[in-house]
Amino acid sequence: MSIRAWLVRRKIRAVFRPKELEAAPQQARLKHFEVALKAMESKMPDAPSDATVEAVDTGTVRGEWISVPGARGDRILMFSHGGGYVWGGPKHYRDLGARLSRAMKARVFLLDYRLAPAHRCPSAIEDALAAYDYIQAENPGVPITMAGDSAGGGLTLATAHAIRDSERTMPVALALISPWLDVTGSGESVRTNRDKEVMLDADGIQIAGQVYSGELSPDDPRPSPLFGDQAGLPPTLVQVGSEEILLSDSTRFHKKAQDAGCSVHLDVWPKMHHVWHMQAGLVPEGKRAIAEMAAFFEHHWGN
Q: How far from each other are the two terminal CA atoms of the chain, in whole angstroms?
């Protein structure tokens, strides 16, 4: 782990999980996390000056196209943001979107999906399917890849299941970053990494999972795609940190996908924090992870 990553980890933990709140009641911890998340919004970098950002709002599809010089018209990445299904949007991901566009020489569509609690599962999946159909219709014949981080990783996998089951043309490849695939919080790492995790709160993700699931059972494959049928998925890359409470979501998915005959590569990064890619401007491991995603997709673009 680089010294910069170590420093960023310390700062994230101080902001999201300060020592004075370790023994605090659940409600106090969750309120602090919400405040910290809101404070973080103003510090998230915008798109670089050479990036082009184009808003999309068709009434059923919302999001932003982002591309940098050199992005090819025959490569598209559809990206779903994280935020526990209750927070976030394209504007918070413009910097990462531009970095992905630059590394992959691709146009990136940052999906703006409806959030809980106002809109519970399967609303986000419906929005992702509508966006996928829109992208295909507007760009006939162009290969589409899909990626997402945290909850967006779960949404990406759930959407891939829905695409497969509806007999649509599948994306050519997937990338899941620190994905949240089990909203029940039943993974072993939720317990074993509880004290090592620098950002997420184990109780918090369980509550957010219940909020997002709504009338569905939290172990339904739509809010928790880990429990779905993994057969027929396109080649998939999974990147996750070794000390995340969501680590088991990735390791269990990796085994299930392999058992189903899928091509899936799991890359566990030592001591990396949740979605370290978001700090790629500071953390060299973030730059390397994005570069490895780009190399993975490069192998599957087929153009």
A: 35
Residue 206 has pLDDT above 70, yes or no: yes
How do residues 82-101 score in pLDDT, each as one tens digit? Answer: 999 999 999 999 999 999 99
Look at residue 32 and tell me whether its pLDDT is greater than 80. Answer: yes
The CATH code of the domain that includes 119 is 3.40.50.1820
User: Would you name the residues annotated as active-site residues?
Assistant: 150
Label residues 226-247 b or e (16+ Cβ within 10 Å = b).
bbbebeebbbbbbbbbebbbbb
Average of per-residue pLDDT across 156-178: 97
Domain range enclosing 221: 3-301
Torsion angle of the four alpha carbons 91, 116, 186, 264, in this order, in degrees rounded to the nearest 10: -50
pLDDT value of position 303: 64
* Count of domains forming the chain: 1
pTM score > 0.85 for this model?
yes
Tokens found for residue 55: 């808003």
